[in-house]
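Saturday, quiet lab. Running sequence design on the structure tokens for the scaffold JK sent over.
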């Protein structure tokens, strides 16, 4: 679809475009709502802005943080965001998405302690408050690439991802493997608490292993078929993490509420064979997590950045032509997050999909919070491009359009090229040489 690029002149222009597309965005100029603190498990999140987990693929071979990791989190610490959702940290070596993905171990625990302490102290020095930091525990599943080639762990064979040839049955994780994996999530959570993180996210989004299990309709055994079986591992991992940590730790998840793939290969879709969202199963799962297991906060996402990135991060330019206007993707994110928030008013929610709107994303964040459609607005690629976005929103009441992410997708291109990732446009001195070398091959 030809979207003619991002050319909105003002907020009214954004509103008019949404109306023309038949969608609605809750836009507001009241930035005060974003300055209000909110409490999760007796921990105070100082404001309503979050940095979503953004991987730089720049750890060392042992999973520890090296220079670019430390640099990134120093920038995030000085962002002004009250919630820093720390990037994916592998729970076992074979689950790393690349050889440089972070992995917290007993050997590098002190390095993470120092990193977390630096984030908190640097933010406190800059803004006078300490952010809440959540560590994302992950198993990359079919995207596991611990050395130099993919070594996938899949929940089931999917023709959507295996069009040319089905992956061998040996790639399908066994029930026994999943049972053993629960304890690895627990071990990672224990180390996260020792490192000083305020909480742990049992990652269940973007088609990594737990997310794929949620749609394992065709899988036999204890972890597939019925709704109860498909959510079994996710709930068991949450229980294991809760049991392994103190009551002070926030136990949460960044979870997909919609995959964007037709049944029986997608989660959060109706059974008609279309890709229309259906929140009935996500609602059932959230009810268990929140009302039965006491999970107080969830972070909602959608789609698969490898396969349908227009769903999870709407863009004007990318590796393929988007089948919809980016505004429609933003509205889908907002509408379904708002629907689930309305079902669980006491659940603290973090919503996604803001960055495409550039400087107007602050208005969408304010509108979502002001109208009660979310509690916290989460920004991902925006933080790569414009790490002080939150400080500018909270202190100046607006974002600087000359610093905003332009949704060009180059940070994702770098990840696909198996190199370190960052903003080529706004952080040129650091990342353009890497982009030139590893993506452009120049």
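Result came back. Writing it out in full:
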């Amino acid at each position: 679809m030809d979207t003619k690029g991002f050319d909105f002149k003002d907020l009214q222009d954004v509103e008019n475009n949404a109306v023309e597309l038949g969608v609605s965005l809750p836009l507001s100029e009241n930035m005060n709502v974003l300055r209000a603190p909110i409490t999760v498990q007796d921990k105070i999140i100082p404001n309503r802005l979050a940095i979503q987990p953004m991987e730089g693929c720049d750890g060392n071979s042992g999973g520890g943080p090296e220079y670019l990791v430390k640099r990134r989190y120093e920038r995030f610490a000085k962002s002004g965001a009250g919630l820093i959702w720390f990037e994916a940290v592998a729970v076992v070596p074979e689950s790393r998405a690349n050889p440089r993905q972070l992995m917290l171990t007993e050997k590098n625990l002190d390095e993470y302690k120092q990193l977390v302490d630096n984030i908190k102290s640097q933010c406190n020095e800059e803004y006078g408050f300490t952010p809440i930091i959540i560590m994302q525990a992950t198993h990359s599943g079919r995207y596991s690439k611990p050395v130099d080639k993919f070594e996938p762990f899949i929940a089931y064979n999917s023709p959507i991802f295996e069009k040319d040839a089905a992956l061998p049955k040996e790639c399908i994780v066994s029930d026994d493997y999943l049972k053993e994996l629960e304890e690895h999530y627990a071990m990672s959570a224990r180390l996260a608490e020792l490192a000083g993180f305020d909480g742990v996210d049992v990652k269940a989004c973007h088609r990594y292993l737990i997310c794929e299990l949620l749609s394992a309709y065709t899988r036999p055994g204890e972890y597939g078929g019925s709704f109860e079986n498909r959510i079994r591992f996710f709930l068991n991992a949450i229980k294991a993490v809760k049991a392994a940590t103190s009551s002070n730790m926030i136990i949460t998840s960044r979870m997909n509420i919609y995959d964007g793939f037709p049944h029986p290969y997608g989660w959060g879709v109706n059974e008609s064979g279309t890709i229309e969202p259906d929140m009935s199963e996500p609602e059932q799962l959230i009810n268990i997590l929140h009302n039965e297991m006491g999970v107080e906060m969830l972070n909602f996402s959608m789609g698969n950045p490898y396969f349908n990135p227009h769903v999870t991060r709407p863009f004007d330019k990318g590796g393929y032509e988007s089948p919809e206007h980016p505004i429609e993707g933003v509205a889908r994110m907002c509408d379904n997050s708002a629907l689930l928030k309305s079902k669980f008013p006491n659940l603290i929610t973090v919503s996604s999909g803001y960055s495409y709107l550039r400087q107007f994303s602050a208005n969408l964040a304010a509108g979502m919070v002001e109208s009660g459609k979310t509690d916290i607005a989460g920004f991902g690629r925006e933080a790569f491009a414009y790490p002080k976005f939150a400080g500018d929103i909270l202190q100046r009441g607006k974002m600087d359009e000359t610093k905003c992410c332009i949704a060009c997708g180059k940070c994702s291109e770098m990840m696909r090229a198996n190199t370190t990732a960052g903003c080529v446009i706004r952080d040129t001195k650091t990342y353009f040489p890497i982009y030139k070398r590893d993506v452009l091959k120049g």
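Notes for JK: The CA atoms of residues 87 and 347 lie 23 Å apart. The two ends are 31 Å apart (CA to CA). Ask whether to fix the surface positions before the next round.
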